[in-house]
Amino acid sequence: MYKKKKSGLSGKDAASDIPSWAEGERPLEEENGREFAKRLLDDKYGEGNYPTGPGSEFSKIKKWGDRAFE
User: What proportions of the chain, in percent to the nearest 5, are helix, strand and coil?
Assistant: First the structure.
């Protein structure tokens, strides 16, 4: 089962500056933002074949997963 998106959040509060290919994806109920980002990026690029630093796709998806879903 997937988490539900929080309603009423602005773009900044929801950290919605994510890659376009990740739109429509949602974290599983037991996932935190880090696990959600790892799952999406492992599926797209292969396990560990992506940067995880500030401003990276990993960082953006992690923040979005932590902030935009309940």
Answer: 45, 5, 50
